[in-house]
Amino acid sequence: QGRLAADAIHAGAFVLVSPAAPDVVHAAFQRVRGEQRRADMLTYYRRREAKRAGLDQLLGESTPMLRLKTQLRLLLDAETRCREAPSVLLQGDSGTGKEEVGRALHFDGARRDFPFVRIDADDLAAPDAEARLFGRERGPGAPQRRLGLVEAADGGTLFIDDLAGMAPSLQCR
Questions:
Q1: What is the pLDDT of residues 49-95, one digit of tens each?
Q2: Is the pTM of this model over 0.70?
Q3: What is the Cα–Cα distance from 39 to 14, expressed in whole angstroms?
Q4: What is the rounded CA–CA span in Å between residue 65 and residue 61?
Q5: Alpha-carbon radius of gyration of the chain
Q6: Surface-to-core class of residue 68, CB atoms within 10 Å of its CB (0-12 exposed, 13-18 middle, 19+ buried)
Q7: DSSP states along 93-115
Q8: 102: confidence class by pLDDT, cuts 50, 70, 90
């Protein structure tokens, strides 16, 4: 029974059935404590990132910038009425602030509680690009999958910088 409880903890269990050996209880407590620390850190970093990424952080008072901010507010308003957040394609020359706009839409919109995952298409080397994007099975003896970047963004925002630089076969997927 003690070995079964220890194996359950190592597999991810948080609930123990009494009676349990003190070392098993201690291990379960440490696991819960570690998970709480990770959750607290994630919350901290998400909040810190959100403070630097809203519509208010888009600088500029020119007519085109004010027009952009108005369009983004309309988009965010429409998003609140949708069951699912719509997909958005941001186009523009290099250095025009597409990523900042993407972050503003993410952190001021319905996706704010989910991940913002940025991918630079130029950084995806051809041999492992598919595995990095879509995950893969682990090697022999390890049945768990390695999560891909697309899955990691589930519910949030997947920002692909320089999509045209990505192989056409990956763009299709």
A1: 766 677 888 888 899 989 999 999 999 998 888 887 778 889 888 88
A2: no
A3: 15
A4: 6
A5: 22
A6: middle
A7: -TTS-HHHHHHHHHHHSTTTTS-
A8: very high
